[in-house]
Amino acid sequence: MRKIEKRSDCPISRTLDIFGDKWTLLIMRDLSFKGYQFYNEFLDSGEGMATNVLSDRLKMLEEKGIIISKKYEKLKTRKQYGLTKTGISLVPILLEMLVWGANFDDSTVVIPEFYQRFLNDRTNLVNEVMISLEKGMNQNFC
């Protein structure tokens, strides 16, 4: 597993120690907004993440208390992943990144209804996504 070294006591630096690579943030995106729960779903998300990187990031996120895994009830050899309250607390930041990316690069793909809802009703959308995740209702929001 990737060793996380504390570079300083700065809160931004500490956040980057955990989320400072694209793969970790993409896993968080997939858990938060795409409803992904299984290893193969993350692997097939389209960005070409290597299996060893995915495994490493999932272990690190679980070790840090950001995600949790459990045996899948329908197939005990399979793990099912979800966000903890700490992981869910990242949702507003991820949504801001989504909108920033859509505004910065108009070639990105965002579901127009989701994007407009965020622009027009940000607070309620953030709350809806967070409550859905807290209830374990994994949905594809974008």
Structural description of this entry:
Residues 10-109 form the HTH hxlR-type domain. It comes from Flavivirga algicola. This is Helix-turn-helix transcriptional regulator. Pfam families: HxlR. The protein is mainly α and 142 residues long. The protein has one domain (11-134): Arc Repressor Mutant, subunit A (Orthogonal Bundle). The chain contains eight helices and two strands. It has helices spanning 11-19, 22-33, 39-43, 51-63, 85-88, 91-104, 112-120, 122-134; strands spanning 67-72, 75-83. The radius of gyration is 15 Å and the shape is globular. The two termini are 30 Å apart. The mean pLDDT is 88.
Helix % is: 55-70%
Largest sheet report = 2 strands, antiparallel
Number of distinct beta strands: 2
Query: CATH top level?
Result: Mainly Alpha
Q: How far apart are the termini?
A: 30 Å
CATH superfamily placement: Winged helix-like DNA-binding domain superfamily/Winged helix DNA-binding domain
Element-level helix/strand string? HHHHEEHHHH
Spatial sequence of strands, sheet with the most strands: 1-2
Total domain modules: 1
CATH architecture: Orthogonal Bundle
Number of helices: 8
Secondary structural class: mainly alpha
Quote the beta fraction. Answer: 5-15%
CATH topology: Arc Repressor Mutant, subunit A
Average pLDDT confidence is 88
Radius of gyration over alpha carbons? Answer: 15 Å
- Which residues sit in consecutive blocks of at least 5 with pLDDT less than 50? none
Global shape: globular
Keywords: DNA-binding, Transcription, Transcription regulation
Domain HTH hxlR-type: 10-109
InterPro entries: HTH_HxlR, WH-like_DNA-bd_sf, WH_DNA-bd_sf
Pfam families: HxlR (PF01638)
